[in-house]
Amino acid sequence: MSILPFIEGEPIAGRQLIGQDLAWLTTRRQAGIERFQKTGLPTQKLESWKYTRLRPLDDTRYLPVDAGGTDISIDTVPSVGDVAARLVFVNGRLRADLSDISELPEGVRFDTLENVLAEDPLWVEANMGSVAKDADQAMLALNDAMMDSGFVLHVQKGKALTKPVEVVFIGGLTDQAIAYFPRNLIVLEEASQATLVKHHVGHGRAEYFANSVSEIAVGDAANFKHYKVQAESIHATHVATVHTRIGRDANYEGFGLSIGGLLSRTETNITLAGQGANAGLHGAYMMRGNEHCDNTSYIDMAVPNTTCNQVFKGVLDDASRGVFQGKIHVARDAQKADGRMLNKTLLLSNDAEIDSKPELEIYADDVQCAHGMTTGQLDTTALFYLRSRGIPEALARNMLVQSFLGDALEEISDENVREVFLDRVVHWLPAHCFLAGEWKESA
Amino acid sequence: MLEIKDLHATVGGTEILKGLHLVVEPGEVHAIMGPNGSGKSTLSYVLAGREGYDVTGGRIIYNGEDLTNLEPEERAAKGIFLAFQYPVEIPGVPNSTFLNEALNAVRRYRGEEEMDKIEFIKMLRAKTKELSMSDEMLKRAVNVGFSGGEKKRNEVLQMAILEPTLAILDETDSGLDIDALKIVADGVNALRSPERSSLVITHYQRLLDYIVPDKVHILAKGRIQHTGGKELAHELEAKGYADFVGEAA
Fold it and tell me: Which terminal residue of chain B has fewer beta carbons within 10 Å of its beta carbon, N or C?
């Protein structure tokens, strides 16, 4: 019996791992294994995992990805178009032929973790684990032990990336079930700016398990936009753990669009660490079949004069299930905190289910915080209104779903990204009969 | 053109329409007046095919065809249009997109070609101008942030674009000031022709000064209680419904 029953073979010993000649990293891997052995996979006894169980890991043994294997030809790689650079990982391995990081502006490092470990190990050592410190998070511990891919984005003080950088993870194109463990390190120094777009997509019919960790340090007065599309296949188990620290007068804008994946969970931890820090953490989810999508977040308003806003809206069809857990914590001295949280879900079927748990935990006395949650079905009056104008029922339903989600997508301040995301929403809809072009034009 | 025979309809199991008879000939404008709760809005929803408004007896014959089992969109394609008393707001869907989708859907259903986008915009601009609406109202989301008067004008705009053969106006005058009322009435009158008919449902006679009806019906307790000419509306305004329905409204 292996240490990790859902992993084929020994997790570390005898494997080719990135940075394996670095003693500190080997120590980190060992510590990760030990922590994971203590916690095991998260169970529903844990409050933060109450509604999600990693069921596919019960009876699937995933092969970790090593060097080797065959390159599969890929016709199209999702993209938002005009980007500064792109990294593409297929089945957990970099595909240099599909990537391009040759045109980066001065003061910006954007590369694979493997390369940065080779070129600048001291920098990685200094930054890895400086934001993601939670010793109890099993999935972080697992990633600490198994990290095998991922990227680094580092923007130096005062530098700005004018175009987004893009990372694509493609899974499922293998003969057998595989697991990969991307580790992403994002550091924006003081007064720098960047936009990152991540695409997680699934092709093929193989099962896969992606367990990623992103550590994000947004320096004082820096501005970071972080967009993610999760369009995994129905054979995917996607677990993402994100730790973000936001400095004084810095701004973070996060948006996650979840439109596919058998089982997915994104757990986001944000610390508003400096006065004037602002975080927007938003998302939209669209699930069908037996898909399960969990968005869990913890926002720590640790110092006075910080703001945060969350808008999560979702559409659940068939027997799919959504989970929204959001907690905003206002520390004792964090006066003048302004925190907002909203979760709205549209249930398109009687078998769909949402578990929504917005929470405020406030220890300061001079704050403005609010949370709200609604669950409903398509408005029958609106549906009748559209149909009475001749619009067929299927199209009318699509229009109302788009109308519902459009509101959340408005939180994306990058117009180009918003258009691409809207397009993905349109294509999720049944028999996407809506005129996407026209929608975008006038939206 | 429209022939309603002994119509019985229920909403949530309660019978609201209890044997309603009504015949509207081509080109005619009929007004339906009645106290609150008489079944006026139910009649309009039943004609437009709203779910939950169940016909339990009688028939609705429109141009020789029984409408009872048709979907709302099929009725729209056959030329029936309901101007809502409370037009629905649809955030995120631009008004022009909505109007274009509606027109194309109706055209597709009728086996006609969809209207070219440029041609559509041109037509839309012209109609908007006639109704004293700004182009801005086309870009905005359907009815979102519209005033009461703007919403009603938007209903008339939809009507002008879809060119129905039977327009049902459900209390289109409610919440309108006199200027808006005139604009709406002009819009409705502009569509009057020997082939088109209208059913004007209203509480007050005021609208009927601008949309002059051929016949006025008094609806109460789920039935037409009395029918007369346009002067009946004035009589009602002076006397109230009591004389006609046997009790105070």
Answer: C
Confidence (pLDDT) at A281:
98
ipTM, 2 decimals?
A: 0.96
Task: Give pLDDT tens digits for A16-45.
Answer: 889 999 999 999 999 999 999 999 999 999
**Structure tokens, A264:** 């997915």
What CATH number labels B2-245? Answer: 3.40.50.300
B110 touching chain A per CB within 8 A? no
Report the C-alpha gap between B206 and B175 in whole angstroms.
Answer: 12
Q: What is the mean pLDDT of chain A?
A: 93
| Contact between chains at B90 and A439 (C-beta distance less than 8 A) | no
A415 and A268 assigned to the same domain: no
**Environment class of residue A86 by beta-carbon count within 10 Å: exposed (0-12), middle (13-18) or buried (19+)?**
buried
Of A387, A400, A405, the CB nearest to B72: A387
The 8-class DSSP code of residue B85 comes to: S
Same domain, A79 and A208: yes
pLDDT at residue A433 above 60?
A: no
CA distance to B102, B138, B156, B159, per residue, from B98 (Å):
6, 9, 14, 13
* Domain assignment of residue A357, yes or no: no
Q: What is the arithmetic mean of pLDDT over A344-368?
A: 96
Q: What is the pTM of this model?
A: 0.89
Range of the domain at A151: 23-274
The angle at the Cα of A243, spanning A354 to A284, to the nearest 5 degrees, equals 30
Asked if A394 has any chain B CB less than 8 Å from its own CB, the reply is: no
Residue A393 burial (CB < 10 Å; 0-12/13-18/19+)? middle
Residue A149 lies in a domain: yes
CA distance A57 to A156: 40
